[in-house]
Task: structure prediction
Amino acid sequence: MLVKILHACRGAAIGLAEVIPGVSGGTLAFITGIYYQLIESIKSFDLEFFGLLLSGKFIAAWEKVNGKFLLPLLLGMLVGLVIGILLISELLESHPPVVWGFFFGLILASSWYILRRIEGFNLRLALFVGIGILIAYGITTLSPAEGSSAYPAIFLSGSIAICALILPGISGSFILLLMGMYTMILSEARSFIQFRDFDALLVLIIFVAGALLGLLVFTRLISWLLNHYQKTVYSLLCGFMLGSLNAIWPWRDPVLFLDAEGNIIPSAVPLTGDFKVLQEVNKWPADYMSGPAFTVAVIMAFIAGMAIVLVMDRIEIKNGSDRKTIEK
Result:
C-alpha cells in the first residue's frame, strides 16, 4: 500500500508540473526516479496488450502494462492536474516569482543529480549536454503563435504537447503556449471542472485523444534510444533541463501582448486588461515591474527546491543505492 501511495504522490507531482508553462512532467519523472519505468509501461500498450484484452485475459493484460505501478501513478496525475488547474494557476497569479523560484532550484539541482550518475562522462557527452541546452533555450525564446479552436488543431496540439511528458526540460504547457493553445485548453478544463460544461468536455476529449496517440508513438522512439544510447540520451535530456531554466527565471516582465482583436502590441510596461502575453524578458528583482518581487521568499523557495533534490541524493547514498549509475 505504501508503494502505491508513493507512486500516487509522484503522479501528482508530474500532473502539477504539466499545468505550469516552463516545467516539464518528464523532469519530475526523472527526479522521482520512475522515468525509465514509466517509458516501459507506456510502451507496453501495443497490439499484444489489446489482443489480451479482446481475448478476456485481463490479468495478463494488467501485468503486461505494470498496472500496479501505472494505475496509482495515473490517478495521482489526475489529482495533480486538477490541483494545478484550480490552485497553482491562482498561485501563479498572486505570487509568480515564488513558484518559479522553487522550480528553478528543483530543476537546477536535478540536472546535477542526473549528470553525476552518468558513468564515464566525457567531452562527447558534454557536447550533447550543450546541444540540449541550445535546443531548449532556443524553444524558450520563441514567441507564441495565435491558436486555433478547430478540432484538428486541438488534436494536433495534444499530440505534440504530450511529447514533453517524455522529454525532461521541455514543458508540455510551454509547447501549448507557443502554439497559442494553452489559454484555451486551460480555460476549457476549468469550465468543465467548475461548471460541467459538456462543450468543453468535447474539446478535452479531442485533446486527450491526440495526446494518447502522440504518447504511444513517441514513447517507442525514446525507449529504443534509451536501450541503445542511454548515456547520450541522458546527457541530451540534462541539457534540455538546463536550457529550460531560461523559461522559469523567477522575475520576467512581458514585452509583447496580443489584444482581443488580434493586434500585437509591444510595450515596455506590463499592460492590464484583456491582453494575452506573447513574449517575456528576464529581469533582476530591482527591475521587475509586473508586481512585488518577493525576493526573500523567492530565495527561500529556490533553496527549498534544491534541498529536496539534495536530500534525495543523500538518502540514496546512505542506503547504498548511489551505485545506480547510467552505464550504457
